Amino acid sequence: MNSAARKILVSCAAASGVLAFLFISPNIGYAIQPHVAEPTAWWVWMILLFAFSFILGIFSVLAGVGGGVLFVPIVSGFFPFHLDFIRGAGLLVALSGALSAGAPLMRKGLADLKLGLPMALVGSISSIAGALAGLAMPANVVQLLLGVAIMFIAALMMKSRAYGTPDLKKPDALSQMLQISGIYYEESTKSDVSWQIHRTPLGLFLFMIIGFIGGMFGMGAGWANVPVFNMLMGVPLKVAVATSGLVLSINGAAAAWVYIFKGAVVPLIAVPAIGGIMLGSKIGAKLLTKVNTRSVRLVVIIMLVVAGLRSFLKGLGI
Amino acid sequence: MSDKEKKSESIDKVQLVYARVLEMVSHVGMAFLAIGYLVYVLQLLPLSVPIDAIAGNWHLKASEMQQKLHTPAGWSIISSPAALFKGDVVSYLSIYYLAMATVVCLVFASVTFYREKNYLYTTIAVLQVVVLLVAASGVIH
């Protein structure tokens, strides 16, 4: 067995472990209506949360999704924290990841300010609204909707086929007015790639919706930002992924303040989650070239389906 | 120099400024987060709410926990200068710093856009700063 295959096997084994834990110990987590006093020492939960976030960080990078999208549904599945605190931590996880990865991507011209800022402006306003709506709703309703959203994301990941550099003939009037176009250096072809965009009004509308969903569920929204940039607006994939991080860092910050003021951000929970995901992401980035990312992506899709289903059933009180 | 080259140069300058500021604030932020957490969980400073109390009630809704434990939220954590010497407050502040990092980057980007005479993006960046500051002020909650 070669080294890459071994790594895939280890990855799959780790994911299977997570899934088994989800199934075998359904009563460990009780994010909605826990009634039992917590017997386990707090620091044990913190170590578990850090270790779990670390594994999620590895998987999120290998699967090409943000840590936030995995964090909220899976952690709410079997950690004893209320969903409010998990969503607060989830937003900070997404925000921190985007902040730490942002600078090199900006320098390379991959994260584009002129593309990201208009989308972030509408997205941040709606993410505040989403956060307010999410915190006002009963937890079981949020959990149910979260389940639906996660299964939709899994379906989107299964179906979507990203385009490296979409062939775009003519930019639309709004994108020209907003001066949105760019050039970046493509290392694989050793050439400059120039790009422009279209369908900007529809893109702005969708970023508003994505912002609302991201704020409501405390998730990063890379899963939605990237397809909208790439498949709808014609942004090259690398620019789409990098600029999605910029949008996330702004939308996440706006919604995070709502959670902070509602008392839904607890450092005891948020910091180990951030630390674990960020450390795991760094390891994941190193493994990226050595592991079969398609297999890992499949494992993550399965994890999302299970977590989504579990969240949905919990929302129904089952 | 063509218009496209001029435009590309202008974008690069703003992006470079944003990247430089982002790198600095995010590095400081991560260090602050780690140090703040250690101060908190190792209880190197007194706490405003004991960790065991948080752990005993983290299954409650945020509003219920706040009501029960009177946990600080928003800027009320620094109700007095003495509060700055509480371990949990230091950890809270490290999170607030992280949430404010984007604002700092955007302020620098706004100024650079303005110097480039790009008034459209100066306006967009300033509006974005306003949205984030309004969120951070707590007036809409």
Task: List its traits.
heterodimer; A: about 325 residues; mainly alpha; two-stranded antiparallel ribbon; 12 helices; globular; B: about 140 residues
Description of the structure:
The complex is a heterodimer of chains A (318) and B (141). Chain A is mainly α and 318 residues long. Chain A has one domain. In chain A, 72% of the residues lie in helices and 4% in strands. Chain A is built from twelve helices and two strands. Chain A has helices spanning 3-24, 42-63, 67-78, 83-107, 113-136, 139-159, 173-177, 200-217, 222-232, 237-261, 267-287, 293-315, and strands at residues 181-186, 191-196. In chain A, strands 1-2 form a two-stranded antiparallel sheet. In chain A, a hairpin with a 4-residue loop joins strand 1 (181-186) and strand 2. In chain A, helix 1 (3-24) runs parallel beside helix 12 and helix 3 crosses helix 12 (293-315). The longest helix of chain A is centred in the N-terminal third of the chain and has 25 residues, at 83-107. The radius of gyration of chain A is 19 Å and the shape is globular. By secondary structure, chain B is mainly alpha-helical. Chain B has one domain. The longest helix of chain B has 39 residues, at 3-41. Chains A and B meet through helix 2, helix 4, helix 5, strand 1 and helix 10 of A and helix 1, helix 2, helix 3, helix 4 and helix 5 of B.
